[in-house]
Here is the input.
Amino acid sequence: MNDTMAIFQTLHGWLESNICNLDAIIFDIDGVLLVRGESSMGSQKLIEMLRRERFPFYLLTNDGDHSTEEKAATLDRAGLCVLSDEIVSCSDGLMELADGLNSNEEPFFIMGNLGNPCFAKKAGLKTTRDLESINICQGIIVGERNYDWEKTINAAVNFFIRKPHASLIVPNPDEYYPGQCGEICIAAGGVARFIVQIVRRYGITIEPLYLGKPFLPIFRKTRQLLEEQHGRAIPLDRILMVGDYINSDIRGAKDFGCRSAIVLTGVTTMNMLERSAILPDMVFQILGE
Here is the structure.
């Protein structure tokens, strides 16, 4: 275990003495604020404390197939009052990305769900889900769930064989996400990597553009929003990322350059940390009492 990694009981308790050393906090949602569909212990009191202190914070999620309005409603049903504009989704990266994409009349093909309202349409992108139209598209955006995987993945593979320079945009880089009864479900990142592998076997290399954690677009967007809220530039070492997943939350925070903390209410255990080459600056057992 890294001797420099400090271990504390609650984040709330630590903040009472150390909030002056930070300018902003970023929270992961699932596994941190939400645990098995319920608000985690101390999460509501922690958010209320940050509001009282007028302390800037945002919530990050790789759940790119639910709009921020839908995610806020999920949090509300779990007893956690959060506004939709306090949430940054991996799919929000499409807004920034749209400015640099080809603005011609060719649409983007969307695989699966991408929120309601749709993040791609919100970004001003022309889109289609019609497989018959895939070959006139300028790229593919990989969403989640509710599509015919066999037909769509076959069509996507052949699309990139014909158009190897087209864009493969993946809001959620995760290969899987938790399902019910301890099972896992294949996520957009897993589908995208499968497409890349098959096309590579055919002799063509394509490079997906990932938007969510641990990749930088979602962190850059969040810092921009925090600085707009704060009214000034925020040094990275005064931003704390609080997550539950080493390879997503902590890796992303370290690559971005901000401070990092693991809460042991999600997927990461102390045994995992002891074996990991990637370590947070701090570990908290829970958010609060």
The longest helix spans residues 216-230.
